[in-house]
Amino acid sequence: MYHEIEFNKIDLNLDPPIEEPERQYYYIAKCQKWVKEFEQKQGRLPKACVTTFGCQMNARDSEKLLGVLKAIGYEETDSEKADFVLYNTCTVRENANQKVYGKLGFLQTLKRKNPNMKIAICGCMMQEADEIETIKRSYRFVDLVFGTHNIYKLAELLAKQIETQKQTIDVWEDTTEIVESLPNQRKFSFKSGVNIMFGCNNFCSYCIVPYVRGRERSRNPEDILNEIKKLAADGVIEIMLLGQNVNSYGKTLKQPITFAQLLQRVEAIDGIERIRFMTPHPKDLSDELIAVIAQSKKICKQIHLPIQSGSTEILKKMNRHYTKEQYLKLVEKIRTAIPDISITTDIIVGFPGETEADFLETLDVVKQVQYESAFTFLYSKRSGTPAADMPDQVPSEVAKERFHRLLTEIQTTSSKLTEKAVGKTEFVLVEEQNTQNPEMVTGRLSNNLIVHFPGSIELIGTIVPVKLIKAKGFYYLGEKEN
Ligand code: 5AD
Ligand code: SF4
User: Fold this and answer.
1) Is the shortest distance between the CB of 289 and ligand 2 below 6 Å?
2) Rg (CA), the chain
3) What is the pLDDT of residues 181-208, one digit of tens each?
4) CA geometry: angle 70, 75, 78, nearest 5 deg
């Protein structure tokens, strides 16, 4: 186990081990030596800043990357005026890439002032060959580039960069490897994401994820359960199980297990009080899973069920493998089994070929399902995906106009729903001090909605009953009950 590693006993005169994670422990020890030299010269420890773009997967990866940097000896900082700045990138939508290049320009000016500074980029954007070429050509000052499949190699790559002082690039097309027992630095003491699988096999026609995250690989249930047990012993009470399509969990393991069975085993772990998961694909959400959620005392009564479009025609072009009617039937089945469940979704507006009639189907689903909230996206053309070459790309003014109509519809339903719960007392996991008012704290309900209420920071990390006093669209103001 990582916690028991005595890095000072690792003999750096020997060749690095071939096996993982031992090989990375060796390189962590090697980098530690370099940090000691830095400290002696500069009279301080080097500082590292990790910035995350994109989804929960990336957020979890960043915790692992920061864990390795801290094990090496870096001090964490939020400021980019640091000695090591790492961007963990997203490439799901085009503007995310533009944002990264803009920020890199700014980092270059910082590096001129601090020549010791190292700049690193990793994540989904780096899995695209064109982006690597751009970095090689126009961003020579970037020291380290790696992808999504080898984040566990950070210490090894950093050691190589320190040794060669050259731009170091290591991006793999895919992998079957999952390396366990590496350090990680959690952002919250009381809640944590836990990867249950990596990659995606669905190939929705608009989505770049299967190309940049590779094929589906499930972690062994024992590794997942051990990680959660350790988190619980460490004071974590809420966990979020992460996978691009959790319904496929376990299918390819030597001893197959279903996602619902995994959830039951997680439920049995003492200390864990709330279980969330993300994301199930509507095409293969099983009756077994619905039954397990319905019976569970710990699984939050919220399900994120991306619809993407309400038009069966568009869903077909999106390669989603369900129709509007099948989706609505599924929602009905879930609501019958779990009446108090809140449903959230992802919707893309302006997919190629989307007509006004198709869009009205989407609005119709939104009205029928009554989503608690929704992530809405303007379709973004990702080269390399089938949708990028489809005819009838929707003009951006048309897509934007539809997008605004959709937002208005969603806001109307979600404020109606939040209004309904006013006056009720619900349990809130307190997450942080309120950013506007230090006498207040902010937390989340089981359905993931935010509540602000007067309270002290000692409440952070605990679950308390709060009376919901006022609904404010996507959040509540409340009062703690005694
Ligand atoms: N354009 C717009 N939205 C997209 N998403 C994925 N790919 C694209 C794209 N090319 C959205 C989907 C997905 C969410 C994570 O991002 O709605 O569920
Ligand atoms: Fe992308 Fe579809 Fe896989 Fe989700 S399920 S990551 S939208 S391809």
Assistant:
1) no
2) 23
3) 788 888 899 999 999 999 999 999 999 9
4) 110
Spacing, Cα 397 to ligand 1 middle (Å):
19
Q: What pLDDT sits at residue 262? A: 98
> Which phi and psi (to 5°) does residue 241 adopt?
-80, 125
302-304: strand order across its sheet:
302-304, 342-349, 373-378
CA distance 180 to 152: 9
Contacts of 464 (CB under 8 A, 6+ apart): 427, 428, 430, 443, 455, 480, 481
Res 174: pLDDT: 82
Cα 350–352–354 angle (5° rounding)? 60
For residue 320, how far is its CA from the centre of ligand 2 (angstroms)? 9
Whole-model pTM?
0.92
Q: What is the pLDDT of residue 2?
A: 65
Average pLDDT over residues 244-256: 95
Residue 242, strand partner residues: 195, 278
Distance CA 260, CA 337 (A): 15
pLDDT number for residue 280: 97
Q: Is 59 exposed, middle or buried, given 0-12, 13-18 or 19+ CB atoms closer than 10 A?
A: middle
Distance between CA atoms of residues 309 and 316, nearest Å: 10
Choice from 348, 376, 380 to test ligand 1 binding pocket (greatest atom count within 8 A of CB): 348
Distance 195 CA to ligand 1 centre (A): 20
Q: Where are the beta strands (DSSP E) in 63-174?
A: 75-76, 84-89, 118-123, 144-146, 168-170
